[in-house]
Amino acid sequence: MNIILRKPMREDYFAIASWVPDEIACLRWAGPRVTFPFSVTDLPTLLEIPADISASYCLANGDDNVYGFGQYWVLNPGAVHLGRIIVSPHVRGQGIGAELCKRLISTALDHTGARVVTLRVYQDNFVALQLYKRMGFMEVTEESKDDVLFMQKDANGS
Q1: Are 3 and 67 in contact (CB under 8 A)?
Q2: What digits encode the pLDDT tens for the residues 104-139?
């Protein structure tokens, strides 16, 4: 499969929206600023990040099939945060999530010069949690909550 990391196109948001089946999935993926149901045409605006440096990307087969989506943003100097990572249900379990994260991290580090990469993951999202651990992310206990872990890794450990 020849896949690339690229900026999302308008058509991609129709696929991404189809991966979010209900209110709970929407909250867990996009957070409280995006309410379900949402308008696909409004999704690019709803997903905008209020940060000086932020970007959205899709993992896709050229301009055709989109397999995953993720964002990064800088809220603290020296650290880039990954969020809203989602993979098409049709390709889960095929390494797409790992590929998306690797490429998103590489792009985020290149564009921001960050030394640390952070993210949040629900503790019961076992597949994502195991992926992030395999990639070298460690829990930051003092930043974690009962249901959501805050994780980080050093950029040189990528």
Answers
A1: yes
A2: 999 999 999 999 999 999 999 999 999 999 999 999
Residues 29-46: tens digit of each pLDDT? 999 999 999 999 999 999
Residue type, 116: V
Q: Taking the domains of the chain in order of start, what are their residue ranges?
A: 4-116
Burial letters 20-54, b for 16+ CB under 10 A, else e:
beeeeebebbbeeebeeebebeebeeebebeeeeb
C-alpha separations of 155 from 13, 89, 113 in Å: 30, 29, 9
CB atoms within 10 A of CB 122: 14
Sign for the pseudo-dihedral over CA of 17, 22, 28, 30: positive
At the fourth CATH level, the homologous superfamily of domain 4-116 is Gcn5-related N-acetyltransferase (GNAT) (3.40.630.30)
Alpha carbon of 39 to those of 20, 42, 100, 101, 158: distances in Å?
12, 5, 25, 26, 36
For residues 142 and 106, the answer to whether their CB atoms sit within 8 Å is no
Burial of 10 (0-12, 13-18, 19+ CB in 10 A): exposed
